[in-house]
Amino acid sequence: MTVLPMKSDRMLSFGIAKIDEFFPGFQRGDFAALFGSSLCRSLTSLLCVRCQLPYRKGGMNSQVIYVDGGNTFNPYTISALAQEYSLNPRSVLEGIFISRAFTAYQLAALVHEGLEDALKRYRSKLVIISDITGLFLDRDVPWEEAEDLYKKMTKSLSDLASRRRVIIIASHHPRSYSRRSLSLKSILYGNANMVMGVRESNGVTKFVLENHPKLLPFTMNFPSNIVTMDMFTET
What is the CATH number of the domain that holds 130? Predict the structure, then answer.
């Protein structure tokens, strides 16, 4: 894998030449929504590793906070990516501080009550919120209550990213086109300053930038229906 040089403004890019040519990366203060398939989880894992690289190698020289709302964290993926960057997998894993939530109430509490203190403690420049909508789809949580919790949580994340000058990326894995799911998606996208993701259609995988404060939307196709992270690395 070729590690791309860091931009002068210290943006955190994916380090994938095909994407970085059009999307230079995330800046501190961004609250981004990253949607899509399993490759979406691979991309957040990639950012967890790249963030820990020194500035001269395209990173932010920073540990990462990972709020796991969907039990998606995969240490094996992290370890494999760390080795691609000639990093010690154990050291990289130790640089990711994980908090897990099993209910919508727990996830909201982690964001409101614990996240800012964790940012102060670890001085992290990157926060990943994994599967931010999943727990709010639970029908045991009344919709009015779920909607209120979710609005406050996503607004808090947007404010926190701006105030603490950190990058917060919330992954969103669409499961259905129910009214609840579509409403949660609308709330998330309304609070994020950028929206991007991975779509699969007719055997083609697409990287899509839907919204950005400075860039025009674009779609990038990756040929064939057999797409792995190997296609997103430079050898």
Answer: 3.40.50.300
